[in-house]
Design a protein that fits this description.
- The protein is of the alpha+beta class.
- The protein has a domain of 77 residues: Nucleic acid-binding proteins (OB fold (Dihydrolipoamide Acetyltransferase, E2P), Beta Barrel).
- The chain is 11% helix and 24% strand.
- It contains 3 helices and 5 strands.
- This is S1-like domain-containing protein.
- GO terms for molecular function: RNA binding; translation initiation factor activity.
Length: 157
């Protein structure tokens, strides 16, 4: 059995030091998740903002989950102005602090990360009329008209 190295789980309650931007770095807000380690983000730079294609570094890829609406720190590339690299993700309280000290614009909407894990089950609406025993003989279940019926002769060979 492998030995415990002492790292433990996530310490989400720990407060970390707020990291501000340096030269060649800008704050951004995620607009779309593109997949394969790429996101589209709106950078708050000196020109009033620009959408850029951002690559999530391997250090963050499976450890830090980045969602739409998150505030991130990106490093611009010297040779490609429309691309950037994600350096870190700010937690929602850190993003509010950046907004308070006027590092990011006031019109940025900071969303609170969801802590409940219901996986959208509450959003599903069940139709009880098709689940009762008496409904099997009284009502016909709705049928998709785009799917051929199993009695169609083209299916039989």
């Amino acid at each position: 059995m492998p030995k415990n190295k002492g790292k433990g789980g996530k310490n989400e309650n720990m407060k970390r030091e707020l990291i501000l931007k340096d030269n060649g770095q800008f704050y951004a807000q995620v607009t779309r998740i593109l997949g394969s380690g790429y996101i589209e983000a709106f950078c708050f730079d000196n020109t009033g903002g620009k959408k850029r294609l951002c690559h999530i570094r391997g250090k963050l890829r499976r450890k830090v989950w980045i969602n739409q609406g998150d505030v991130i720190l990106v490093g611009l590339r010297d040779y490609q102005d429309d691309k950037a690299d994600v350096l870190m993700k700010y937690l929602s309280d850190e993003a509010r602090e950046l907004k308070r000290i006027r590092e990011i614009p006031d019109n940025v909407n900071i969303t609170e990360a969801s802590t409940n894990n219901h996986d959208g089950v509450e959003d599903v609406i069940f139709d009880d009329r098709h689940n009762s025993d008496a409904s099997s003989s009284e009502e016909e279940l709705p049928r998709d008209v785009n799917v051929r019926a199993s009695t169609d002769e083209s299916f039989r060979r």
